[in-house]
Amino acid sequence: MSTPPFVKAERLQKLPPYLFAEIDKKKKAALAAGRDVINLGVGDPDRPTPAPIVRSLQHHVENPAFHQYALDQGAPELRRAIAAFCRARYGLDLDPDSEILPLIGSKEGLAHFPMAVLNPGDVSLVPDPCYPVYRSSSTFLGAEPYAMPLVPELGFRPDLDAIPAAVWQRARLIVLNYPNNPTGGTADVPFFQRVVDRSREHGLVVAQDAAYNEMYFERPAPSILQVPGAKDVAVEFHSLSKTFNMTGWRVGFAIGGAPMIAALGQVKANTDSGIFTAIQFAAKTALEQYDALTPPIRALYKDRRDAFVSGLRRLGWDVPTPEATFYVWIPCPQGYSSTDLCARLLDEADVVTTPGLGFGKTADGFVRAALTVETPRLLEAVERIGKLAL
Length: 390
Ligand SMILES: Cc1ncc(COP(=O)(O)O)c(C=O)c1O
Fold this sequence. Notes:
Helix content is about 40%, strand content about 15%.
C-alpha cells in the first residue's frame, strides 16, 4: 500500500504565495551563470560584528556554566544592561525582573507575542506593507489580519480614523513598526500617543517593532514607552541584529507592561529554552558599548544612503531620502508594477531589489533597495540602472 502524500496544515496553506520566489530563482540563475550581481535584496548587514562583541563571546563561551540550558527569563545581568540602556537612550524606567524579556531575535518575539494576545476570530491591525511575520503569526492563530495602508501622503503612518468602528471593536492587537521596513517611514511621540489613546479606548494591545530604532540618521527614533502610561497597553520589540551587525547571533528583547511581558514569557517557556548564555553576555557588552559602537555604523549607512539616493535622483527618479533604516523605498516609474521593475533590474542590470508587492497589496508601486553593499557598488548599481533609461 502506498503512503498517502504529506498534506500541509491549513494554516500554512492559508499563507499568501511567496512572492520573492521568482526573483530568488532568477537571482540564483544569474549567480550560477557567473553574472556580476549587485544584491540590494536582503536586509542583512554586510559588515562584521564589532570586535569587542566578538571578543566578549569568545571569553564567555569558555564558561562551562553557560553550556547548560539558559534561564527562560534571560540572564539577570543582560536584563539589567537592557534596563540601563533603555534609561540612557530613552529615559525609560523599567523593572529588569518584570518589564524586560530577552528574545532569540525580535522576530521570535513578534511571532510569539500574538499567541499571548489573540484568540481565534479576533482582528489584528497590521500595516500594509509590512514585515510578513505580523500577518502570518496572526493567521496561524485563526485571527484575522486587517490591513492598515501605509502611503507616502500620510508619511507611511496608518490613518486610524479610516478604520471602521466594527473593526476597532473586534481588534485586540495593533502592530506598528517604526522606523519602518520597507518604507523607511518614521514615527514621533505624538503619533505613538494617538495610537496608545485609541488602543486604551478600544481595549487593544500595541506591539511596536523597533528593530530599526538605532538606525536613524536625522534625529533619534523614539520608543513608544516614552508616552506616559504606555506600559499599560504596549510592548516594544528591540533587536541587536541591525544595530550591531549581529543578525546571525539571534538576540533581541521585549520591553513593556509586566502582565504582557509575563504572558509572552509563558508562551516562550512552552516553545523555546532561552538564548545561549554566552550570547547574552556578548549582547550585554554590545549594549554597554552602544555609544562607541553605533555611531560608525550609522555613519556608514548615511553615506551609502546619500550616495545612492542622490545617484538615483540624478537619473531623474523621484526617490525620498529615508530618515532611518537601511532601506530606500523607490517609487516605480510610470507603467511598471513592482514585480515588473524588479525583473527588469535583475534581467538587464544584474541588480537585485525586492518588489513592494511582497510586503503588501498597497505597495505594488514601489521596490525596496537595501543599502547592504559598499558605496562603489551602489554607485555602479545606479550607473547600470541609468543605462536602462526607464
Ligand atoms: C521590521 C523587522 N522586524 C524584525 C526583524 C527581525 O529582526 P531580528 O533579527 O531581531 O529577529 C526584521 C529583520 O529584517 C525586520 O525587518
